[in-house]
TrEMBL record:
It comes from the Eukaryota. It holds the Pfam family CDH-cyt. CDD domains: CDH_like_cytochrome (cd09630). This is DOMON domain-containing protein. The keyword Oxidoreductase does not apply. Residues 1-17 form the signal peptide. The keyword Signal applies. Keywords: Signal. It comes from Immersiella caudata. Residues 77-164 form the DOMON domain.
């Protein structure tokens, strides 16, 4: 009887923990009427950036990815981790630079300022800044698989985000130092909503440049 009660309590506790974690973000499928691409859209709780991820429907092993960040103008920079951690996976950090957005590929082996990472390359597809928001969309080669890990396209995939209200020291320089983050978080979701027909996905990356 005690064992049965313990088992029930463990299930309830696990379900509650999952529910509490889930409330840290909202998830939806977003399809852009302009480019026809569909994304997994993640909105962390609070006034944090919106993150949108798109991949080809035949994604396996090494493949290109697309990430869009839409951030309130009050943020100095926003970051995204493809493997769900600050360390040992590709990071992208973006910040406003005039009316455009600078994108920096980074990697960290410890909880210190991430260094420039040349094994992941980003192509800026679109970037803009107005009175309320700045946004950038990039295609990445080298973000789906890395030394020690890869994105899970058939089950749950974990990602992480970070942001700061402070501006970077050299906005035009992708190698610039940037201040410590004000908040961070992770989210875990299947990438079903992020999948697009492979040919259309590849064409969009090839023919778009911002």
């Amino acid at each position: 009887m005690f064992c049965s009660l313990l088992a029930v309590l463990l299930v309830v506790s696990s379900t509650l923990a999952t529910s509490l974690e889930k409330r840290q973000w909202t998830e939806s499928k977003y399809c852009n009427p302009t480019n026809g691409l569909c994304y997994l859209q993640i909105v962390p709780r609070g006034t944090n950036p919106i993150y949108r991820i798109a991949i080809p429907d035949n994604a396996s092993g090494a493949f290109d990815t697309v990430l869009e960040i839409v951030a309130p103008i009050t943020l100095g920079w926003a970051g995204f981790a493809w493997g769900g951690s600050m360390t040992a996976n590709p990071l992208v950090v973006a910040w406003p630079n005039g009316q455009k957005v600078t994108v920096s590929s980074r990697w960290s082996t410890n909880r210190v300022l991430p260094t420039v990472y040349s094994s992941a390359t980003y192509k800026t597809l679109r970037s803009s800044r107005n009175d309320t928001h700045w946004s950038v969309e990039v295609a990445c080669t080298g973000c789906s698989r890395w030394s020690g890990g890869q994105i899970n396209t058939s089950g749950l995939a974990m990602f992480a985000w970070a942001q700061s209200r402070s501006a970077v020291s050299q906005p035009a320089n992708p190698s610039s130092n940037f201040p410590y983050h004000n908040s961070v978080g992770t989210f875990t979701e299947p990438l079903t909503s992020a999948k697009n027909p492979a040919s259309a996905f590849a064409t969009y990356i090839r023919t778009t440049s911002g």
